[in-house]
Design brief:
The chain is mostly beta strands and 361 residues long. The protein is built from two helices and 28 strands. The chain starts with a helix and ends with a strand.
Length: 361
């Protein structure tokens, strides 16, 4: 009976000692228990550190490539960004996976005319229209096809959505023109709205409608906003008599944000619902052109002088500071939000390179 008690006490004590020694040893990459081994460099502590490192996204902006980029655009799957190199004429693609530190060099996907002055993308990077001097070109990158267009298209009125180009086709000799939609692939122009005014800013609001900003010839500070149905030509006025008007439409085209300047020079940011024709104030000292909608039209990300903020377009109009940034270095004309809304891709004004900014929200 005494021998049995002694064995019961000794075996657990011996097991505890072995397990304790093994715990210490695994941190050094080996095991003293027969038949069990731990690979050097993958200890429990090191594996824990790797997990922690992956769970903590970068606090500083991540550079996606070493190239200076021009006219960037997301691909249709939002997995890469296409851009143009004027010096070489190369169209390149850089993977968004570079944000995670798995750096992959940009890939050339096409070669077009170098030193183009302007590019507008069609069909998520599958085709484009471009300008060199007074000549406009249509490039089909997937079909390796280029065609010179009959007339220059580029001015402040041009706007692209999918495979269609909306623009003001105005003849100064006769003093009139049309708001038109052009299909470059078929070389077809559809005239939508006749006009005698040259003071139109044209932009796509949705799949079937255009956003039109106009002002009286003698009073450019008084802006009017209309929405034009491209199918039936119907025109609806949404705003009038607004100074310094900037408009950014939601992804679905059912609402927009706009900024205006009051008589004292203060900038006010507001939200407008198209269906109910109602507006509400959501912020001060924020320009609509410095904002981008989230992917589900729930709210907007905006840059002020020192911070990136998120404004929820709800009853509470809650404003959340995402992180501190130097907005002067960010080209707000080239903002892209990843599909999971974890990163904001932007072009830097300092070096013209692409960066990814982690959205800690």
């Amino acid at each position: 009976m005494k021998a049995i008690k002694y064995f019961v006490l000794v075996v657990p004590a011996f097991t505890i000692i072995i397990l304790f020694l093994n715990f210490l040893s695994t941190g050094f990459g080996f095991s003293i228990i027969p038949g069990r081994s731990t690979i050097i460099g993958h200890s429990i502590i090191e594996r824990f550190n790797v997990v922690e490192e992956r769970r903590n996204p970068p606090q500083e902006p991540v550079k996606l490539s070493n190239d200076r980029v021009f006219f960037p655009i997301f691909d249709s799957a939002r997995k890469s960004v296409f851009y143009y190199e004027p010096g070489t004429g190369f169209i390149k693609s850089v993977a968004l996976s570079n944000i995670n530190g798995d750096f992959v060099a940009p890939v050339m996907v096409a070669e077009i005319k170098p030193r183009l002055e302007e590019i507008r993308w069609l069909s998520s990077g599958k085709s484009l229209i471009a300008m060199a001097g007074d000549v406009s070109y249509y490039y089909d990158l997937s079909g390796n096809y280029v065609r010179r267009l009959n007339k220059p298209l580029f001015d402040s009125t041009l706007s692209v959505r999918d495979y269609r180009v909306a623009f003001l086709d105005y003849d100064e000799m006769v003093g009139k023109g049309y708001i038109s939609v052009y299909l470059p692939a078929d070389d077809l122009v559809k005239k939508i709205l006749p006009t005698r005014s040259q003071n139109w800013e044209v932009a796509w609001a949705s799949q079937d409608s255009l956003s039109l900003i106009n002002w009286p010839g003698s009073r450019p500070s008084e802006n009017y906003l209309f929405i034009l149905n491209v199918n039936d030509g119907s025109l609806r006025k949404l705003l009038e008599g607004r100074s310094g008007l900037e408009v950014v439409w939601s992804p679905l085209g059912t609402a927009f944000i706009f900024s205006e300047t009051d008589r004292l020079g203060n900038v006010q940011l507001s939200f407008f619902d198209v269906n109910s024709a109602t507006e509400k104030r959501i912020g001060d000292n924020l320009h609509a052109s410095s904002c981008i909608w989230d992917n589900k039209s729930r709210g907007i990300f905006c840059f002020d002088e020192k911070f990136l903020v998120y404004i929820n377009i709800g009853p509470d109009k809650q404003k959340t500071i995402i992180r501190q940034v130097d907005a002067a270095l960010i080209d707000t004309g080239s903002l892209f939000l990843t599909g999971d809304e974890k990163y904001l891709i932007y072009k830097s004004r300092a070096d013209s390179k692409l960066y990814g900014l982690w959205l800690d929200w």
